[in-house]
Design a protein that fits this description.
The complex is a heterodimer of chains A (about 200) and B (about 110).
Chain A: H1 5-12, H2 16-38, H3 44-58, H4 68-89, H5 91-110, H6 116-132, H7 137-148, H8 153-160, H9 164-195
Chain B: H1 2-25, H2 35-76, H3 86-93, H4 103-110
The chains are: A mainly alpha (about 200), B mainly alpha (about 110).
Chain lengths: ~200, ~110
């Protein structure tokens, strides 16, 4: 926990100053999670504010401060889902964004100032984004929370309200699917190197 | 087959390493200075909307309760009717003579014995 239970209790009881402190403690982590879930840095703050807005109006339903973090992750996942669903509906804007992304990528490729570390990070991001695109949105979010955000099965169980075994099965299947695509891409890369 | 040698463990480890590398490659962003003011603006806007909606709902409930109460009071104390109904007026205006045209009345007049 990043804050004391007492602070969450005060925020739940309507203390706005306490709520501000809670947001300040969690906003960076939540923005990072949202960024990794939606993959669009320009919209991260909007989705983040949506999460904290929902939190503000639902905090009075929180049973105990002990379940605050899973509760917050649940709101984060829901807001990310909603965002991704809206994005899917906006076909025309997605096309526009795609071309914008292409421009950004072209700019990035043309830039000779970019250092090697940033290039490596970019390759890692692109590779994992490609692998994760082979599974459903729900599985991608679940796998991201488990493997990248580092949430435990217990925390996921609380956040999703689903039993641990069901989560294990779903995670296993998602991981197997990602591994399959990873294997295929590794083989393709090895084959390309050999043929040279 | 090289892939079978690679698969369960080596590939899994590589995937795990890729997850960790991805976490490092996508660090948590610093929130912009406008994050908190914008959030509070949204909260206030939402709060005032919710508040006015609540006020409106309360107003409607109060008005409905008052109307029900008034109706109850009115029905519990029936007032004497200020004016007779149409049927009462009609009945009152029908004197014996007015019925003279009808055969029933005529017949009773013709045979008094």
């Amino acid at each position: 926990m990043l804050v004391e239970f007492e602070l969450i209790r005060r925020a739940r009881d309507g203390d706005d100053a306490a709520y501000s402190q809670v947001v300040q403690a969690y906003r960076k982590r939540i923005l990072g999670t949202i960024g990794r879930l939606i993959g669009r840095p320009e919209d991260v703050e909007d989705v983040g504010q949506e999460v904290f807005l929902r939190l503000y109006f639902s905090l009075d339903q929180l049973r105990s401060p002990e379940v605050f973090e899973p509760w917050l992750y649940r709101l984060t996942v829901n807001a990310a889902y909603d965002y991704l669903r809206r994005q899917r509906r906006r076909n025309e804007s997605r096309m526009a964004d795609l071309s914008e992304q292409q421009v950004v990528l072209a700019d990035a490729a043309a830039s000779s100032k970019r250092d090697a570390e940033e290039q490596r990070r970019k390759r890692v991001r692109e590779l994992l984004d490609t692998l994760m695109s082979s599974i459903s949105e729900q599985d991608r979010i679940l796998l991201t929370l488990k493997e990248i955000e580092g949430l435990s099965l217990k925390e996921l169980e609380k956040a999703y309200g689903v039993n641990e075994n069901a989560l294990k099965v779903r995670l296993f299947r998602a991981r197997q699917r990602v591994l399959k695509v990873f294997e295929a891409s590794t083989e393709a890369a090895t084959g390309a190197v050999r043929s040279k | 087959m090289p892939s079978q040698d690679q698969r369960p463990d080596a590939l899994d480890e590589r995937l795990q390493a890729l997850f960790s590398a991805y976490r490092e490659a996508c660090p948590d962003p610093e929130p912009s200075p406008g994050f908190m003011p914008q959030l509070w603006q949204k909260i206030d806007a939402n709060r005032s909307y919710t508040y006015s909606l609540k006020r409106l709902a309360q107003g409607i409930i109060t008005a409905a309760a008052a109307a029900a109460l008034l109706m109850g009071v009115y029905l519990a104390n029936p007032q004497p009717r200020p004016s007779p109904s149409y049927l009462e007026l009609l009945a009152a205006s029908q004197t014996h003579n007015d019925l003279a045209d009808t055969e029933i009345v005529q017949a009773s007049h013709d045979n008094p014995r």
